[in-house]
Design brief:
single chain; mainly alpha; NAD(P)H-quinone oxidoreductase subunit D4; NADH dehydrogenase activity
């Protein structure tokens, strides 16, 4: 059942190689639609009251190496699987029908879809690494072939950073299995609690660096601006909307969950890195003149929220982290897509050359209105999905890391600043040429943005549909953390211990309030 999400797009990618060039988009869209429908079917079969693995599949493969084909889904991976299937459909539907070498593009897109789904489903560490690396070459080619003027440099930089990330994760997993004496790389067979503290810290650090590169977080982010900006809008959606989530997913799944005792030692440092990423992303975005580069830097900040939430390790913060991963994927996708539409119609992404796009005289009123919605969602305006996720992150993290959380709240205000700058100049600016009329955006071109906008609004007013899948899993994650160890850095006296205990007892009530919003 779960294997369908992997092998349907992979087999579809191979079949597209035999399709006529003119029919490749239609064939890829049909496969992506089937994949999305199957994901919706799995959502309907998922037991939201069960915190454990569901719909598991297991096949013997290379038992001598500890590699088995073992799949499973839980409340952490299911929302990200749904995001993957949706954005793959958006990428294929929203791609240009005049794209050169379209057959190769769609085949590579489907390979990325299958690889990322496999990584989210893998219950074997080596199997995870295998799927984790599947997307490396396809995305390198997609940047190098369909990218901008500096695409070769951006693609090579992406390749190097991503390869290093994969090597570090593989080394960490090999060391983990060897030192723990596990006979298999299956997720359930790994136990770190008997390892010396020093060994745990070394292994955890290696894995954190590997996943931080993929996310990316500062100071390991330098591949992101080049890759996101030089990539075509559909590829930028893949990079920021889906690929970055592999990094944050790995931090929760393999770092926090496998190293519960050691997590409290590194969590203060992670909170600092998260806050630094948030502030850096926001401040750097403000100074950008290219709207695509501005959106790219905003991604660093939003991933920083996820790291702060993971460092706090409370039920609310982890629930917010999952929500932030999904909401960021939706928001980044609509922003990159609309930036691509504007560039195609107007011919530029420079803020100084864009003005008055919301005015009907320009011919882009709906596109501009959707851009305003995307900017508001990214800024965390209430009623939209971005607010729900950020609220949970801040609420859940404050009791553990009050100062970093306050800095994140300040940074969220900076997010509003740079999106006000973007929207004021592009959508509301004074017309420099009242007669300039740009080509109409067809309804076919508007459809991906309308779908994303609908989800951004719906999940903002009905957050239960965003959170219900993950709530039991996040509770289990927190239960796996030793309360004394998880708070040993923050707790210095009995009054703080009392405050933490009070916060723990209030979590269930806070979740109920969030669900009724």
């Amino acid at each position: 059942m779960l294997s369908t999400l992997i092998w349907l797009p992979v087999v579809g990618a191979l079949l597209i190689g035999f399709c006529p060039e003119k029919r490749s988009r239609l064939a890829a869209l049909a496969i992506a639609s089937l994949n999305l429908l199957w994901t919706l079917f799995l959502l309907s079969r998922f037991d939201v009251s069960n915190a454990g693995w569901q719909m598991q599949e297991a096949l013997s493969w290379l038992d001598s190496l500890g590699l088995t084909y073992r799949l499973g889904v839980d409340g952490l991976s299911l929302p990200l699987l749904a995001l993957n299937s949706l954005l793959i459909w958006i990428v294929i539907y929203g791609s240009s029908q005049q794209m050169v070498r379209s057959r190769l593009f769609y085949a590579l897109t489907l390979l990325v879809c299958g690889g990322i789904a496999g990584a989210f489903l893998a219950q074997n560490l080596l199997l995870f690494v295998l799927f984790y690396e599947v997307e490396l070459i396809p995305l390198y080619l997609m940047i190098a072939i369909w990218g901008g003027p500096k695409r070769d440099y951006a693609a090579m930089k992406f390749l190097i950073y991503t390869a290093v990330s994969g090597v570090l994760i593989l080394v960490g997993f090999l060391g983990l299995a060897w030192l723990s004496g596990a006979s298999s790389f299956d997720y359930g067979a790994i136990n770190t609690q008997d390892l010396p503290l020093k060994a745990q810290l070394i292994l955890l650090t290696i894995l954190l660096i590997g996943f931080a590169i993929k996310t990316p977080l500062i100071p390991l982010h330098t591949w992101l601006p080049d890759a996101y900006v030089e990539a075509s809008p559909p590829v930028a959606i893949l990079l920021g909307g889906i690929l970055a989530k592999l990094g944050t997913y790995g931090i929760v799944r393999f770092c926090l969950q496998l190293f519960p005792d050691t997590w409290s030692i590194v969590s203060p440092g992670l909170a600092i890195v998260g806050v630094a990423s948030v502030l850096y992303g926001s401040l750097t975005a403000i100074s950008q003149k290219d709207i695509k580069r501005m959106v790219a830097y905003s991604s660093i900040g939003h991933m920083g929220y996820v790291l702060v939430a993971c460092a706090a390790g409370t039920e609310l913060s982890l629930l917010g982290a999952v929500g932030q991963m999904v909401s960021h994927g939706l928001i980044l996708a609509i922003l990159f897509y609309l930036v691509g539409v504007i560039e195609a119609k107007v011919g530029t992404r420079e803020l100084d050359k864009l003005n008055g796009l919301l005015n009907p005289i320009r011919g882009l009123p709906l596109t501009s209105a959707l851009l305003v919605l995307g900017g508001m969602a990214s800024a965390g305006i209430p009623g939209l999905v971005g607010f729900v996720a950020e609220f949970l992150v801040f609420q859940g993290s404050f009791s553990v890391f009050p100062i970093p959380t306050l800095l994140c709240i300040i940074a969220s205000g900076l997010t509003a600043v740079y999106f006000v700058i973007l929207l004021n100049r592009t959508c509301f600016g004074k017309l420099d040429n009242a007669t300039a009329y740009y080509p109409n955006v067809t309804w076919t071109e508007q459809t991906p943005a309308l779908v994303l906008a609908g989800l951004i609004f719906f999940l903002g007013v009905q957050p239960t549909w965003l959170l219900r899948w993950s709530e039991p899993t996040t509770k289990e994650l927190v239960a796996g953390l030793t309360i004394g160890a998880s708070q040993q850095v923050a707790i210095r006296d009995g009054s703080q211990l009392s405050a933490v205990s009070h916060q723990r007892s209030a979590i269930s009530g806070q979740l109920s309030v969030v669900r009724t919003q």
